[in-house]
Amino acid sequence: MSKPIYLIDLDDNVFQTKHKLEMQNKKAFKTAALDRQLKPISFLTHCQSNFIDWLLKNADVIPVTARGTEETSRVDIKFNSWKIMTHGAVITNPNGNPDSDWKNHISKELSRYQDVLHNKQQILTKAFNDNNVKAWARINYEYNDLAIYLVTKHTDRMLLHEMYDIADKLDKKYGTDGFYIHRNGNNIAWIPKCIQKGLAVEFLLNKLKTEEKGIPVIGFGDSISDHTFLKQCDWFGMPKSGQITSLLNCQIAKLEQKND
Ligand SMILES: [Mg+2]
Fold first, then answer.
1. Where exactly does CATH 3.40.50.1000 map onto the chain?
2. What is the pTM (predicted TM-score) of this model?
3. 220 C-alpha to ligand 1 centroid (Å)
4. 109 CA distance to ligand 1 centroid (A)?
5. 124 — alpha (psi -120 to 50), left (phi > 0) or beta?
6. CA of 184 to the centre of ligand 1 (A)
7. Cα 236 to middle of ligand 1, angstroms
8. Architecture of the domain defined by 115-192
9. In the chain, which residues fall in CATH 3.30.1240?
10. 140-162: b or e for each residue (b if 16 or more CB lie within 10 Å)?
């Protein structure tokens, strides 16, 4: 009998920051990830910790995360299988080495995006400075110096609208051809269309021959961008609160109102 594969998004799905725990009136049980200064930044609740322990014991657990390889290395959970990182730009095998076929494919696809990503970063940075908005725009790199995608964050989570306003204006002015935009709280990312969790999952499931071998594939994720890989799973789920959950709850409430 084959163990099932669990494809799991990490942040806000199986662990979260202290701030988000407090918003939900929940307690931190265990450190889940460290920040750049190697201080605890994300935490598991008791329930999440039990769930992860059970998963690791009973299934092949593959993280599917927006985190880059360096950021994922600061996650304090003993994953020992494949990993899909940087929104799908990187796939590493259980030994921790990048899959070379996927690396070649992504490097080729991203060559035409290199200048565009750097230009977008400069334009955004200038607009934030000119408008005195305390936000920053950063390019995330992989495979040494390959630009993968652009992300902005505000230093004050009470002023997110300032960052969103500027992003909206610039997108309108310069267009977003070839990109999709991931927006979730204090995070706007411009991601080349070839970089997608769903595409990386499709490649890996084919490589592992899950369908041929009858291996059950189960997915968990909280963001709308997770749907690209969740829809390829035999079953999928989401945390009690999150972006997909809110959308689903809202749609079901509308249907129920219609039926009343
Ligand atoms: Mg997430």
1. 5-89+195-259
2. 0.91
3. 9
4. 25
5. alpha
6. 9
7. 14
8. 2-Layer Sandwich (3.30)
9. 115-192
10. bbbbeebbbbbbbbbeeeeebeb
Ligand 1: centre distance to CA 15 (Å): 9
Q: Could you read off the pLDDT tens digit of each residue along the chain, which spans 260 residues?
A: 789 999 999 999 999 999 999 988 999 999 999 999 999 999 999 999 999 999 999 999 999 999 999 999 999 999 999 999 999 999 999 999 999 999 999 999 999 999 999 999 999 999 999 999 999 999 999 999 999 999 999 999 899 999 999 999 999 999 999 999 988 888 899 999 999 999 999 999 999 999 999 999 999 999 998 999 999 999 999 999 899 999 999 999 999 888 77
Ligand 1 center to 133 CA (angstroms):
26
Q: How far is the CA of 222 from the centre of ligand 1 (A)?
A: 5
Q: How far is CA 240 from CA 28, 56, 173, 186, 254, in A?
A: 17, 21, 38, 20, 19
CA 188–ligand 1 middle distance (angstroms): 13
Question: How many angstroms is it from 193 CA to the middle of ligand 1?
Answer: 19
Pick the CATH number of 5-89+195-259 from 3.60.130.10, 3.40.50.11750, 3.40.50.2300, 3.40.50.1000: 3.40.50.1000
CA of 39 from ligand 1 middle (Å) equals 20
Angle (nearest 5°) at CA 82 between 206 and 44: 130
